[in-house]
Amino acid sequence: MHPICEDRILVVDDDNISRALHRRILAKKFDVVTASSGPEALNLFDAMKPHLVLMDAEMPGMDGYETSAEIRRRSNVPIIFVTGNTSIEEHLKAYDSGGTGLLTKPINAGILSKKVAIALERYNSAQRNEREKTEFQNMAMSFLSSTGQSGVLMSFMRSAIASPTYEHLVRALLDATQSLNLDCVIRVDHDSESTVLAYHGTPTPLELSILNNSSRMGRIFQFKNRLVVNYDRVTIVVSNSPEDYASSEAGTVRDNVAILAETAQAMAVNIDIRYAAALRAENMQLALSGAEQSLVKLRESQLQTLADVQILQQELIDGVEKSYSWLGTTQTQEHEISQQMQSSVRKTLDRLQNNSSFEQPLEEVITALRAGYGQNNALELF
Prior knowledge:
It is a single chain. By secondary structure, the chain is of the alpha/beta class. It is 64% helix and 13% strand. It contains 12 helices and 10 strands. The protein has helices at residues 16-26, 38-48, 64-74, 88-96, 109-144, 147-161, 166-179, 205-214, 248-322, 324-327, 331-353, 356-381, and strands at residues 8-12, 31-35, 52-56, 79-83, 101-104, 184-190, 193-198, 220-223, 226-230, 234-238. The strands form 2 sheets. It has a 5-stranded parallel beta sheet with strand order 2-1-3-4-5, sandwiched between helices. The two termini are 60 Å apart.
């Protein structure tokens, strides 16, 4: 059976049945090698360079913890422990020895496959990021090795990092290319718009047409003395590049412009994040302000309701007392009715007026919302 991906897994277990079971589960998707002891696992690890290790904790001689610690000294591959021990102490030993995950026996095939896949995805993503970082650093160092040009790149990086807007970023990029004596037209895409500048100011219609057509010509394209460098969101068209494509001077120009374009691309993402944060802060301010106004209205409504109830209760008493004349009641009955009604009204009003359990929390919420609104304003100003 051929695995459907290139990820290699080392299964380490002294039990033949467990080892075979784990291999059968994982071999459906991965290239699997197995070891029955710690020393054998270390030899296979050095020879096969697996991308993940599935490690049995309890093994005679060199146990899984010792084996894991030795592997961790050699590599940062994910190590998932498999153990029948459920104690917290043993689980902590697994993580302390370099483990990145843990499963308890008996193993569920679906959970094992899912956990291995997630660990491999994270590991491979981290490896890709590290390679890209190294490649970028190597490109940057290559550029910085040129004494006359290193200051240009450093100056552009400082300006780009501090760029608050896309226009500021494009101007900083244009300044950098002019410092390299390059005549350029530059475009940076953002949302559904673009910011475009030329070395002489506003691009001409012809330059815009060349820029739009050039953006579909691949990452790097050159025709005579016109060089085009394209990234997903950054396009630079150089109109005075050396015509001899194979010359070292032309190669240096291509490298420099590519580094500037890649850096500008990364800085455009920073501006995206900054804009998104500002928008969230604005929306939060609106939400806090709206919530505060609603609660203030609620408090005013509650106080008005209390006043209205007091008036209505008094009108009720007055209306009943005016009805005595045609009800045919005696003075004693009228007195008792009035006493009972006034007692009930007092209880009702006392209950409504005793609203501290509602008024105090409401006031605290309003105060908290006002404080939050002020903090968001301060954050936006910062």
